[in-house]
Each structure stands twice: as structure tokens, then as C-alpha cells.
Amino acid sequence: MNAERFKQLWTRNVTASGSSGDAQWVCAYLEKQYRHPGRHYHDCSHIEECLKWLDLYADTVADPDAVELAIWFHDVCYLPTPVGHEERSAQLFIRMVGNGMAAERRDKIARMIGYTTHTTPPQGAEEALMVDIDMASFARPWHQYLIDTVHCRLERHWLNDLEFCEGQIGFLEKMLARPSFYYSEAFKQRHEQDARTNMQRMIELLQKRRVRLSHRVAVGQG
């Protein structure tokens, strides 16, 4: 992870005397969490990839630093269980920033982290860009999208193959049913079709796999 980039971001946005730690300490904590051995997708690479997307579209929002702070924190509490990790990550951000930032802006960034549950449509430009960046992997080249899916599967080790397959199909179909998968104008114009093509292709593969897995269960092989 780019510690120098984080240091500059934290220093220009958070007053050291009001926060719970300086930039170096906070960055070290974040990196330790993202390097947990149980992470396969929600790791340092995911944050680095998100930052690359932000660099492409930072000029489309008024407060790109707010988006970047949300990116650094949004998956920090993913383990030991992913359930509710967005809220835990948002609360961790609030605690670490403390009084080192105006409460209104701090809470705005925390809400931005919360939108990465992808259950509620974002309300503003920064929130929309944050949500789209978190889902940008769906628009990556097909082979990379496949790799990302495999990495997500490794993180959901408590599910059997059929459960994971059915869950993915349900999620993808729900995403495709939205009028637009992405929310920001930049992503809708440049990446919407790539994401939809990938998801439709993945659903077809998963549906075939579901048939094979269901047959195995029916005959007592799994």
C-alpha cells in the first residue's frame, strides 16, 4: 500500500491533535488489516485498484479527498466476518478521525462508507463515485473479473459450492435488474455495458454449474 500517499491525504484532511493517531500509525493499522491472511479479494490489492479508478475520475467530484478517505477505510473491518463490516468500518473511521475533522464532513465520509453495502442508492456525486469504484471490478476484462470472483469465493469459505453459486446468481440478477448498474455519469457512460456483459456471461456459467452441483447433491455426491 502507498503509505506516502495516505500520509499526504491524512495530513491535509485531519488535524493531528484531534485524531486518535498520526498518519503513519493509522496507515500501518489499515495495512495490517488488509493483509490479514484470510483476505483474498478485500485486501491491499483491492484498495490499490480502487485508488487507480479514483485517479481516473477524481475531477468529476467536488471533494475527491472525501472519496479517497472512504476508499481506504471501506473494507478495513471485513474480517473476521463480512456481515455488517461496512458499519464497523464507518465507525472505525469516525473513531480514528475523532475531532480532527469537522463533524459534518466526517459523518459524510462515514455515510459514504456505509453506501458500499450496495443496498441503498447513493444520494450525491461523491457517494455515487465511491459506490461505483467499489463495483468497478465488474467492468474489468473478463479474465480479471473471473479471478476476482474466485478470490471472493475463497473468502466465503463457510458456504458450500451450491450455496455460493445460488447466492451469486441472485446477486447478479438483482444488479442487472436495476435501471443502471452504475450511478455516476462517468461510469454509466464508459463502463456500464462492460459490467453488464460480464455479469450476464457469469450468470450463464453459474447457471450451468448450479445444474451440475444440484445433480451431485441429488445423487448424494456432495
UniProtKB/TrEMBL annotation:
Listed name of the protein: Putative metal-dependent HD superfamily phosphohydrolase
Cleaved signal peptide residues: none
GO molecular function, one term: hydrolase activity
InterPro entries the UniProt entry points to: HD_phosphohydro
PANTHER family tied to this protein: HD PHOSPHOHYDROLASE FAMILY PROTEIN-RELATED, PTHR21174
The entry's keywords: Hydrolase
